[in-house]
Amino acid sequence: MAMLRPNPRGDFPVISESAFVDPTAILCGHVIVEDNVFIGPYAVIRADEADENGHVEPILIGSGSNIQDGVVIHSKDGAAVTIGSRTSIAHRSIIHGPCAVGDEVFIGFNSVIFNCTVERGCVVRHNSVVEDCVLPEQFYIPSTTTIHSNTDLLTITQVTQDATAFSESVAEMNVSLAHSYRRIANQL
């Protein structure tokens, strides 16, 4: 069983029965995990910082998404973090709110997403930093790119069909893993 903890306000994670959360993962506070989500080893998802009124918005992980090994999802001052459906957050990435990541997005290894909106179908490749902007639908951020504002997006291209196919295959594989690991856990 994953390490599930309340935050100081007493909010406790809510996890769909069809999701798989690795036993080494830590989920703390106002975290909502929808159907068929895979949360890998050593992921940390914390909704525990409150705003000045003591309020904490949820961290929501949409259905069919995967949060891979070592990912950290957190937010400042109780702000919301939303991860859409069928979205992949790859190994050791950091998603720090306030932040909204849309449906069918791929965030590559070691990338940092902070204080921004990443709309549907975007691909952010490995070791990239995206902050303080809105990535419109279907944008492709190459590996090792740093985006600090909307004006930095002027040279960015649309997602290719190959990148979309890769993102979809990662999402499908991890939904399959969620089902397989749940089945194994039920047999133990």
UniProtKB/TrEMBL annotation:
Signal peptide bounds: none
One Pfam match, by short name?
Hexapep
What SUPFAM superfamilies has UniProt attached to this entry? Trimeric LpxA-like enzymes
Q: Which InterPro entries match?
A: Gamma-CA (IPR052265), Hexapep (IPR001451), Trimer_LpxA-like_sf (IPR011004)
PANTHER family (UniProt xref) = CARBON DIOXIDE CONCENTRATING MECHANISM PROTEIN CCMM, CARBOXYSOME ASSEMBLY PROTEIN CCMM
Name under which the protein is recorded = Carbonate dehydratase
Protein source organism:
Gluconobacter sphaericus NBRC 12467
The root-end lineage is: Bacteria, Pseudomonadati, Pseudomonadota, Alphaproteobacteria, Acetobacterales
